[in-house]
Batch of 2 targets.
Target 1
Amino acid sequence: MNKMPTDTYKSFKEKVSEENYKRDIEAVSGDIQKLKEIVKDKLKEWEDFNILNQQQKNVIVKFLDFYIDKIVPFYPDDKLVKAIYLAGKRLLTNGILDVVILNIYNRIKPLLPPVESINLRVETDLLAILRPYTLLSINAEKKISKINNNLFSPSIKPTVIEKFKKAKDEHINTKNKVIRYVFDNLESIKIKRASRYVFDNLESIKIKRASECQFIKILDEVDIIKDMPVYKEIVTTHSKFHEYVNFIILNQKTFTSSQKYLLVKEIESISLKLLYLLNELQIDISQSTSFIDNLTESYNKNVFNLIFFQEVKRAQRYEFPLSIMMIDIDNFKKINDTYGHLVGDEVLKELSRVIRKSIRKTDYLFRFGGEEFLILLPHTSIENAFKVGEKIRKKVEETIFSNEHLKITVSCGLSEVKNFDNTYLDIEEADKMLYVSKNSGKNRCTAAR
Ligand code: GH3
Ligand code: MG
Ligand code: MG
């Protein structure tokens, strides 16, 4: 999938040849150097610039400096187009609103030398810079998932896409609630926008920690994202959003209306960044779904060796324990035979959810065989892994599965990685322990000690 805005430059290249462009640039090269200085000075007077936080200001200054100096004088080739696109992405991830960029552009435009080809070029660049923002729009987003679905096989599961959508809706809803809360009874365009959503009552805005937020809880149901760098960034950005909101709730009475306006801008920009990152995450997922078991959304066997190897090396190097747990459903054949495979599948799906809730974010859940799971527990001794196993076993025992209200039990076998030169032995050991559990009555955990 090509997100690069090369198409944007097509009409520019049709209108302006490289030769002519070079000639024009040469004629005004002094003006362009001067432009850099003028912009730097004028920037400080612009209202849209001054409402940005320090980090955002730095990003803009650096960008303009780089842009005028290193990008504008050259005829755009693929490398330049990519650089411009990445710059746009950077502005977006820093939560700088597209209106701010447009306003700055509108102020730079009259400062440019009055040469048609250069003006056309800068205009084309603006479109390229705004491309990542366009990708954010809902329609484009739908298109992205569709394209990804066709490109990568197996594709993102519809349930994962649903979860993302749910998480986004949840966040947008909260954000709009907060904005309404900030404005309280002030007339504003923002309120009109926000009122498209249903608000139960404004009092429902409470101090909430980010980790308690439904947004994160929904995302946490997607096992595969926790190792992705973008996910970590989402968690950080989301925490920032909550810190901000809590600050607003605590100080609401003291804000003046112009302060409120700035607060809303800030909230909008953090939100924008969050939505953008979610989009990125969705793309990352679609590219790695071949490692994911479609039914249970846990890792599949393909990726086990890779992760296991890495974790074993880490455990050996930093000398921390690493445990393996095998889980197998007891008498699962009977469930399939009695209620059919679809019900069996549902049980598998729910079981993986139950397991995931009982393990750490740093643990790995693999679907190892049909109804057999393997959990890798870094930083966990066999004693502690046994406790986790018991926790899972009891939770499964208490859970009612599927619409058929089924009860199931599981057996576990555990081992700790000891044979660093031949770790296969340790997996085999866990398997043996599972066998012991099965042979001594099932619904139990056995650890190799
Ligand atoms: P035990 O307690 O000894 O484990 O008995 P069991 O019936 O669970 O026996 P076993 O582990 O040998 O059986 C595995 C069964 O799991 C066979 C098959 O019917 C079922 N199974 C395997 N993969 C799937 C799947 O993807 N979906 C469904 N519905 N069933 C599966
Ligand atoms: Mg079984
Ligand atoms: Mg089995």
Target 2
Amino acid sequence: LNHLKHHEATTVCYSNNNSLVLPPAEIIFSIQTLPLDGSIALYGHPFEQIAARDFGNIYHFPPLAVLNPNTVSDISLVIKLVSEMGSASGLKIAARGHGHSLQGQAQAHRGLVINMESLREPETMQVKYTNGGQVGLPYVEVSGGELWINILHETLKHGLAPKSWTDYLHLTAGGTLSNAGISGQAFRHGPQINNVFQLEVVTGKGEVVTCSETQNADLFYGVLGGLGQFGIITKARISLEPAPKMVKCIRALYSDFSVFAKDQEYLISIENTFDYIEGFVLINRTGILNSWRSSFNLKDPLQASQFDSDGTTLYCLEMAKYFNPDESEAMNQSVEHLLSELSYIPSTISLTEVSYVEFLDRVHVSEMKLRAKGLWDVPHPWLNLLVPRSKIHDFNQEVFGKILTDTSNGPILIYPVNQTRWNSKTSLVTPEEDVFYLVAFLSSAVPNSVGKDSLENILNQNMRILEFCADARLGVKQYLPNYTTKEEWQAHFGSRWEAFFRRKLAYDPLALLAPGHRIFENAI
Ligand code: FAD
């Protein structure tokens, strides 16, 4: 307790309306008196060190305490108490999934962090059907703190799997559903937020609410892509499809961006296409283009992104086709046909077959390698942009032609998606065109470096990209957005700001939740 008192003066004060206002530390003491199934860890506990960190490794805000909930009621009780006792105290609450945010989004400076992974309840992860029998639509009900890798393994036991993924599966359902969850399946199925039947949410008032398209729909759509602003996702029903056993992975290089983009857009526009379509950029990776095919290991995306591009800029189209072993022949014919329609550099085509799990969990292979070299826990100044199709050529010319001189700091993904297949009712903000590109600059900085791989240099580069997008009025939106002022957030949401604000007022009027985004500092 002394630690806490040292951290925060324990003076009782009065708010404007003369009601008792307790300082944050006192509220934490009160939370400890609640009949919780889980536990509260105070400042100084090892978990606190983790709660002040994230994958970005740039911002570190220590909380006062960490709640390890065992039940949904733990979360509800705590939020209710904070909202009743601490409305003016400034104590904020951040749900923390797997902490793979980039700029402190899951942190709460001198606040309370809720460790959602302690609510995982794996024994309750269940595959069911929408009508209760076996003829409805299959879904899995998961805890908001469940990791996608666990969801995959559980659903595969039933021959099923979620339809839409992220490239990396060691993220929680609540964490990705608060953003979008975009990967190479999103052109067809939409992002993960478009593949959810129902949510259970604890609002900023501590109320536990079940919501779906037909029940409390405003909260349902608000929470999906809502950056944790309206409630904490404690359960989610994720839509499933039959899972394939195998995946054919194909990569091919292009030297001309227009041809590359034309082929990508063609592939996402047709019905019988690949199941996964992505791509990445290679700028000025000096060496031998010829070795591309022989030494290229498709199971290792990290290695792929380090490929030589002979001093020029190359674009790699990445495709995958799902299949079961007994469908091999038909799959190969279909792939052959699709490839015959494309205009890649013929000598650069590379095909391989891997299991479905290996394919989906591919980034974990890179993680293990980077961890072994001590290169995983470095600063990650990532920048993710959604670029309208009509402006992608301008973007390519300036960013890959002038601003960036190489891709040695990490992979740069680039692939188009069909907005027409996405549900526009969620809180996610996207460009206003039927097709837009996800461009992800997944940079790693070298700690204590002052060179081009320094954090400062990469952040400057990101700034130049953002400035170019703004000056050229490209209509680009940030994905996993990061802003510091309310004005910037308003500009990000544009015409949708009013709805976002109204939902905050309805579900978290004291602005207790998800302070790390810096959207709402004070009660509304
Ligand atoms: P956290 O970082 O813990 O939380 C993220 C935000 O969600 C915070 O604001 C937090 O308060 C809030 N939150 C967490 N849990 C809940 C909950 N249960 N209810 C309400 N709010 C909650 N994204 C993609 O779309 N596609 C990708 O392919 C992709 N690949 C990635 C690869 C790596 C290696 C990394 C580090 C990130 C990647 N991301 C990708 C980004 C990722 O989706 C987000 O960073 C996501 O938020 C991380 O999930 P998390 O569980 O770590 O969330």
